[in-house]
């Protein structure tokens, strides 16, 4: 998914359009959330349907988790794509690490709460479909589909 150019909404936020659309897009998490928000809202306007604000919030949370985790644990974002397809929004984030995402325990051996480790379970819970694929050039691509209704 991340190696091929997805059809649909361009992933660049307003004012950041690229002349060469084959180049990877490496947004900060806030820019990625803006791209998802824009893609979903454009779809709602085009189909003359109201946007489900809870579903949009879920899509934005998933986008935040995937992009932040790529930065913190994956060596940085190497590509980002968003596409509204059918009843959902597909978000793909590529990073430099081939390591699979994992959920860490919420407590240590003494029973004390530990920070972090909750992003991957959130992504898996909110998405209809989550796929992790190795990239030919190294690293991985995580593609998640968040239902919009």
Automatic annotation (TrEMBL):
Name the residue ranges with Basic and acidic residues bias: 17-29
Q: Where is the Histidine kinase/HSP90-like ATPase domain?
A: 35-144
Residues of the region (Disordered) are: 1-29
Q: Which domain of life is it from?
A: Bacteria
Q: Which Pfam families match?
A: HATPase_c_2
Keyword Kinase recorded: yes
UniProt xrefs under InterPro entries: Anti-sigma-factor_SerPK, HATPase_C_sf, HATPase_dom
Q: Name one GO molecular function term.
A: ATP binding
For this UniProt record, the keywords arranged alphabetically read as follows: ATP-binding, Kinase, Nucleotide-binding, Serine/threonine-protein kinase, Transferase
Q: Does the keyword Nucleotide-binding apply?
A: yes
State the protein's name.
Answer: ATP-binding protein
What species is given as this protein's source? Streptomyces cathayae
